[in-house]
Write a structure and sequence with these properties.
Two copies of one chain form a homodimer. With 175 residues, the first copy, chain A, is of the alpha/beta class. Chain A has one domain (2-149): 3-Layer(aba) Sandwich (Alpha/beta knot), CATH 3.40.1280. The first copy, chain A, is built from six helices and nine strands. In chain A, the strands form two sheets. Chain A has a six-stranded parallel β-sheet. In chain A, strand 4 (76-85), helix 4 and strand 5 form a beta-alpha-beta unit. In chain A, helix 1 (15-27) packs parallel to helix 2. The radius of gyration of chain A is 17 Å and the shape is globular. The relative contact order of chain A is 0.19. The interface between A and B is large, with 56 and 55 residues.
Chain lengths: 175, 175
């Protein structure tokens, strides 16, 4: 099981990046996202996507991040541009254990660096926690997450041009 | 050369996602970002990062997206959840040609699907253009982009704990 812990989310101010973090977690194979700030709007948005597109993904906001990290049973991986190279750390992460992936916004409390089992850099350049999360999961799960089926009410059928959407009533729409 | 064309950016309303797109493009091996809406603030933000962290990355806002796509010499890849599977398309993209990667926000004009050489889905689930861009580039460049050096005024040294920043005056700071 893979859980993502999102730090530094500011509801109202920049809702979209945390939405991107959460939907990326879901699409790339994580099972749950915990957000350190309470945000009912974010919860509703994500649950609406899950209802529509399927899967058993969970979201919980307003969690105590320190308690989550300190009581976690399994490796805690903090994604940061200051960390060790992804290639160097990946083989060290024990497989089959519950993984906690910590992603921050601009400022992450110093304690997180000490509490994490691994501080991992997806490149040592400034970019985006969304990008770091996606590439970490893609590499960690060896690309297999992209071929998972979610069996939702709505499904997308890969298409060369346009949009092919299948609804669970088996009605085909080509828009 | 790899250029990213960003559509649907709304300055002021959601500046951060386009900043994430742009910095992700730079960190994951693209050479330039074109944004279809004029945004001097975004340009300044990105240029400040380039000045500090190095490389020759360029950003240009207020471009005519249709003209860019129509006059492009080389493959045009539109990243969309409705497209063909990434694994299926990657081997078809001719190497060594100038690549234009198109990423949208919520709504992308229908014409883009027709004008693109390939419509590519990084998974057929809703997530994030930042994630799609990062994973596409990581797969397209076979992970080599993460080990590139940018030779900037500021450099990050991979570290197990904390932050090791090197400045070009060779002064080491461990914060």
């Amino acid at each position: 099981m893979i859980t993502v812990l999102r730090l530094g989310h500011r509801p109202g101010r920049d809702p979209r990046v945390t939405t991107h973090v959460t939907l990326t977690a879901r699409a790339f194979g994580a099972d749950k996202v915990l957000v350190s700030t309470k945000d009912p709007v974010l919860e509703r948005t994500v649950r609406a996507v899950v209802t529509k597109f399927g899967g058993s993904f969970e979201v919980e906001t307003g969690v105590q991040w320190r308690r989550v990290i300190e009581t976690w049973r399994g490796p805690v991986v903090h994604l940061t541009m200051y960390g060790e190279a992804l290639d160097a750390v990946l083989p060290k992460i024990p497989p089959g254990e519950d993984l906690l992936l910590v992603v921050g916004a601009t400022k992450v409390p110093r304690d997180v660096y000490d509490l994490a089992t691994f501080n991992v850099a997806v490149g040592n350049q400034p970019h985006s926690e969304v990008a770091a999360l996606a590439v970490f999961l893609d590499r960690f799960l060896a690309g297999k997450e992209l071929t998972r089926t979610f069996a939702g009410r709505i499904g997308i059928v890969p298409s060369k041009r346009g949009k092919t959407v299948v609804e669970s009533e088996s009605s085909h729409r080509n828009r």
